[in-house]
Design goal:
binds the ligand CCCCCCC(=O)C(=O)O; three-stranded mixed β-sheet; (S)-2-hydroxy-acid oxidase activity; 13 strands; binds flavin mononucleotide; alpha/beta; FMN_HAD; globular; 379 residues; eight-stranded parallel β-sheet; TIM Barrel; FMN-dep_DH; EC 1.1.3.15
């Protein structure tokens, strides 16, 4: 998977085209998959295209500052890497390359429970990088507990609990392909920890199947269980409604990721950028709110921040970057997104040009004088 020297990678869809062309079909299909008709997967992208800016002019954009902080840690721009499973399918060094790229670009990487490198390998690959650990709670609670403790001991700085996968969504191409991990990729952190869960055979098991390794009985009370295990901040991923946002705050989490799992779980739910508005309103600044799903351009990042997200995360585009040229390819993806974001911000002439957007930016309907810039949705 080496790119030709003449290939010019200008935007994220160039990496998508490359990945589709060069990845084995079974891996491409797994990365690309959405649930059922893929309505929500595609809507995540379309919803961004319906949002328009109301740019202001003559506001001095000669100095730009796109750094921000998430849960107290500074990142160089407000785009992190969402947790995705099985990076070895994209690049031989797998998550080690992801961790190195995130550190080089000075941003946050959320490592998945279903990483194909061990947590120890990920940490050793990029010491000092900002990393959070994403947890799926398994029926084998002792094993989940052990993963949380290991992540904390290794210096991961946040625990992301994914809430939208009590069972795996029906991804038709994975079913057709009989998707499972190649045997040489079974050396991963659950196996090296001698944990008795997550063997690939049980990844896609339907509700009711005893083969499923995930615990479908997880409830809000399990946040208290997690709290008892770790001092790490808890970020809850998969929230799409004001009701659940309120419950998340009530249960003491430190952050919320508005997410529909890239449209891979419940089909026909809302696009995440649409759900973001409702969640931000419900949270009223009590915890940080982030969003993922469908971010493909710097202007998408700007829209998400303008609507109240503190930071966004990318899933599939990170995998396309890895598939292109491993660590360097992922850095290219992040750099393009960063530069596009900076340009959009400048062209929108955001006052002061600092990424503290959710405080001063809002829907245009709010009509406050202090708002230096606004976005509106077209339906
Ligand atoms: C191939 C793939 C694997 C994923 N694996 C995980 C995972 O292990 N844990 C998790 O919480 N989310 C997982 N997700 C969801 C992502 O974290 C994220 O919500 C989604 O990819 C964002 O949408 P985007 O791909 O359009 O950026 C996965 C998504 C993809 C595409
Ligand atoms: C048993 C669950 C496997 C999930 C694999 C990673 C993931 O979240 C995905 O969307 O794919």
């Amino acid at each position: 998977m080496v790119a030709s020297a003449t290939m010019s990678m200008v935007c994220l869809s160039d990496f998508e085209v490359y990945a589709k062309k060069y990845l084995p079909k079974i891996a491409w299909d797994y990365f690309a998959a959405g649930a059922d008709d893929c309505t929500t997967r595609d809507e995540n992208i379309l919803a961004y295209k319906r949002i328009r800016f109301r740019p202001r002019m003559l506001r001095d954009v000669s100095v730009m500052d796109i750094r921000t902080k998430i849960l107290g840690s500074e990142i160089s721009f407000p785009v992190g890497i969402a947790p995705t499973g099985f990076h070895h399918l994209a690049w031989p060094d797998g998550e080690k390359s992801t961790a190195r790229a995130a550190r080089a670009m000075d941003t946050c990487y959320i490592a998945s429970t279903y990483s194909t490198c061990t947590l120890e390998e990920i940490s050793a690959a990029a010491p000092g990088g900002l990393r959070w650990f994403q947890l799926y709670i398994h029926r084998n609670r002792a094993a989940s507990q052990q993963l949380v403790r290991r992540a904390e001991a290794l210096g991961f700085q946040g625990l992301v609990l994914t809430t939208d996968l009590p069972y795996t969504g029906k991804r038709r191409d994975d079913v057709r392909n009989g998707f499972r991990l190649p045997p040489h990729m079974k050396k991963n952190h659950w196996v090296t920890a001698a944990l008795a869960f997550a063997v690939p055979e049980c990844i896609f098991s339907p509700p009711g199947s005893a083969a499923s390794c995930l615990d479908p009985s997880v409830t809000w009370n399990d946040i208290y269980w997690l709290r008892s295990l770790t001092r790490l901040p808890i970020i809850i991923k998969g929230i799409l409604t004001r009701e659940d946002a309120e419950l998340a705050v009530k249960h003491g989490v430190q952050g919320i990721i508005v997410s529909n799992h890239g449209g891979r779980q419940l089909d026909e739910g809302p696009a995440t950028i649409d759900a973001l508005v409702e969640v931000v309103e419900a949270v009223r600044g009590r915890v940080e709110v982030y969003v993922d799903g469908g971010i493909r351009k710097g202007s998408d990042v700007l829209k998400a921040l303008a609507l109240g997200a503190k930071c966004v995360f990318i899933g599939r585009p990170a995998l396309w970057g890895l598939a292109y040229r491993g660590e360097e390819g992922l850095q290219d993806v992040l750099r393009i997104l960063r530069d596009e974001f900076r340009l959009s911000m400048a062209l929108a002439e955001m006052q002061n040009c600092k990424v503290q957007l959710s405080k001063t930016w809002n829907f245009c309907s709010s009509g406050h004088d202090s708002i230096s810039f606004s976005v509106f949705s077209v339906y």
